[in-house]
């Protein structure tokens, strides 16, 4: 095993060395070592990719589609993405000039933020939030500004946004993730309009992460891109909607002037996206609406089953509007250190949950549960938690 020459580690950029590893993944990796643990940790659909997706990928391989695609992705996928956005969310994007195919929505976030952020800028993110945004802010020498929402039912209010903008004149962009990870909160058209009214008076760019857009339980998803198209970048993909997390296909939709700049970062990072994966994703977006609806209905059944059960156990939990997470407030009579309590539950109750503090300020004292798991596993997890909490000291 090679050992790095002494002193060479100093060649790594200091800001890179200071970046934290993905805490969600780190906790999950730690908990994987515990025998018999039920892991409700990752946002990983427990469904398999639809058969129509598998067939399209196999066809692509058999037709020897093993050569480079264009940097923006195949014409077929970009057209499918444009049709998907139009059909579901009334968004109008030209597939030739306004859509970029990426390696999952993660690369979409990376390429977008790396394009628009520079040293001295500030990035606004309602908290709690997916931890990727903070680390990418650090990579781009940008200050992360969390906007607390835990005192407004995890909803960003226009008043709080206006106050934050006034206090941070160097803000370059705001990330909106909805349905939200970890809280499941979604926004109505009225709420988005109120936020858009504030943003329209600024030069802020809205990075709208809508990867969970198909998993809504209350009302149809509304994209802020329909309200503020001239200031919005829409991010989406097939990972959550079609159980294709491992196929890594996402996309960016934005005005052509911005896409032309984002593609520069994208092409030098990955050159081009996998052709078989794009073929599968094309089939998913063109033909997979019914499969997505079946998944969404199953997730909703799990949500509706779990919420009253966790309330019986003493957890305060609001019904999420979408996605497949419960954000659980730790009962007052239990350890309020969410990292310590998550480890306690993992080792003693054999149930793996993610500490809320992994999602930044506002997440402390909470646990995130992913109910992208089978009904049997969810029932067993509840039984284990009930048994452990009944015996644990108050």
UniProtKB/TrEMBL annotation:
<dbReference type="GO" id="GO:0030170">
    <property type="term" value="F:pyridoxal phosphate binding"/>
</dbReference>
<dbReference type="GO" id="GO:0006520">
    <property type="term" value="P:amino acid metabolic process"/>
</dbReference>
<dbReference type="InterPro" id="IPR015424">
    <property type="entry name" value="PyrdxlP-dep_Trfase"/>
</dbReference>
<dbReference type="InterPro" id="IPR004839">
    <property type="entry name" value="Aminotransferase_I/II_large"/>
</dbReference>
<keyword id="KW-0032">Aminotransferase</keyword>
<dbReference type="GO" id="GO:0008483">
    <property type="term" value="F:transaminase activity"/>
</dbReference>
<dbReference type="InterPro" id="IPR015422">
    <property type="entry name" value="PyrdxlP-dep_Trfase_small"/>
</dbReference>
<dbReference type="Pfam" id="PF00155">
    <property type="entry name" value="Aminotran_1_2"/>
</dbReference>
<keyword id="KW-0808">Transferase</keyword>
<keyword id="KW-0663">Pyridoxal phosphate</keyword>
<feature type="domain" description="Aminotransferase class I/classII large">
    <location>
        <begin position="37"/>
        <end position="385"/>
    </location>
</feature>
<dbReference type="InterPro" id="IPR004838">
    <property type="entry name" value="NHTrfase_class1_PyrdxlP-BS"/>
</dbReference>
<dbReference type="InterPro" id="IPR050596">
    <property type="entry name" value="AspAT/PAT-like"/>
</dbReference>
<protein>
    <recommendedName>
        <fullName>Aminotransferase</fullName>
        <ecNumber>2.6.1.-</ecNumber>
    </recommendedName>
</protein>
<dbReference type="InterPro" id="IPR015421">
    <property type="entry name" value="PyrdxlP-dep_Trfase_major"/>
</dbReference>
<comment type="similarity">
    <text>Belongs to the class-I pyridoxal-phosphate-dependent aminotransferase family.</text>
</comment>
